[in-house]
Predict the structure.
Amino acid sequence: MTDKIVVLVTCGSAKEARKIARAVVEQRMGACASIVASPVHSIYRWKGKVESAKEFLLIIKTTQTLFAKLEVAIKRLHSYDVPEIIALPVAHGAAAYLAWISDSVRPPRGKKK
């Protein structure tokens, strides 16, 4: 098991997904945020009714230690009352890619977290 996680977030628009993706990568909370360009069709229960919506899936690669900070940022930027924010552990991965994630979320030299 690694300390890396993949965080799934559904967004109401591609614009919202891009805004969140850019913010989390610029602030070094995620090494990469991939947006599934075609909308996904979600069917879900909300306030006692079955609803459906087109959403855009955001996939963020980061570390477990950054999850709490990332969650706060997503909630601040997201339009939903209850945004989907689900972290999945990365059991294994290419060593160079996992190292790149660590390097990408590490604060620049001379700066504190």
About this structure: The first strand starts at residue 4 and ends at 11. The chain has one domain: 4-105. The helical segments are 14-26, 67-77, 95-105.
